[in-house]
Amino acid sequence: MHPIEVIPRMTTLAPIVLFVYNRPAHTRRTVEALQKNELAGESDLFVFSDAPKTIEAAEAVREVREYVKTISGFRSVSIVERHKNWGLANSIIDGVTRLCREYGRVIVLEDDLVVSIGFLRYMNEALVFYQNSLEVMHISGCRYPVGIFGTDDTFFLQVPLCWGWATWQRAWITFNKDTAVMEHFDRSMIKRFNFDNTYSYWKQLELNRKGKINTWFVFWYANLFLQGGLSLFPSRSLVRNIGFDNSGTHCGESADYDVVLTKTPVSIREIPLLESKVGFDRHKEYFKKISPNFLKRVIRKLHSIFQL
Q1: Number of domains present in the structure of the chain
Q2: For residue 63, what is the domain's CATH number?
Q3: What is the pTM of this model?
């Protein structure tokens, strides 16, 4: 493993961490979109490459690793090659922890995310603007396709979205992937956690507790939820997930999450440090609409992984 300590400690912009595995075509699209950002040349990029879990994945992992060694267009590029398979959850937790500890903040991407040309500017401006606002724990670059509402360029929800996101050490240091967190919820909290029972976030915690799945995001959400933390969202999406084609670790095939990338900048301005009621209600309507398809995808995924 290449030690991160060899990279210069001081940087003007937040470092970017990219997690890759065995999807060379997706990885290339992610990097090429990121390279088009005006701040790319001033940003340090860290690439964490997981080792193959199976013999069948080895060739694709090798191809991805060969490609990432050719990446240019950033202030620096550092590659961390795992020598054993960590899995997506463990790899993300480790990489984000290391970068936050070293730099105090980090911008996070996976290998199936295409960003708009204003992504890095939005992320860096938001990280600076809210760095001392302890209620704000997460910056989301993507938004669900719930339609445009309100007149502000941004809004807050308690739920984060981890398709292109950022955080600070002050927030991430509170993260703990432990199912004991479930003991702090009562029935009314679970209902709110599930967006008034329109989306089964709680079910994801239960599946982790039973060892059926190994994910990290829902624990990060639970952490924000219990602390009253907020996630900033753009009114127009700066990230598009291209991984819902059955190629990813936790992604099936679906168009439920498809968005159009904005071509106009998203401005960071002062807004009330409160969850948007309209935003919450819009997401309830959206989750209610997609929930049958979501449950079917979860069942199919569990059957394929665990031969249930």
Answers
A1: 1
A2: 3.90.550.10
A3: 0.88
User: CA quadruple 242, 247, 251, 252: dihedral positive or negative?
Assistant: positive
Nearest to 156 by CA among 169, 167, 143: 143
Query: Which residue type does 223 have?
Result: N
Amino acid found at 121: R
Are residues 51 and 84 in contact, defined by beta-carbon separation less than 8 angstroms?
yes
Q: Tens digits of per-residue pLDDT, 14-27?
A: 999 999 999 999 99
| Distance from chain centroid for Cα 267 | 21
Both tokens assigned to 209:
């507790």
Task: Say if residues 152 and 70 touch (Cβ distance below 8 Å).
Answer: no
Domain that holds residue 89: 4-306
Pull the structure tokens for residue 142.
């993507």
Give the lowest-confidence range in 46-55, 173-182, 239-248: 239-248
Find the angle CA(35)-CA(37)-CA(39) to the nearest 5 degrees: 105
Q: Is the dihedral of CA 287, 291, 297, 298 positive or negative?
A: positive
Quick count: other Cβ atoms within 10 Å of Cβ 7?
A: 18
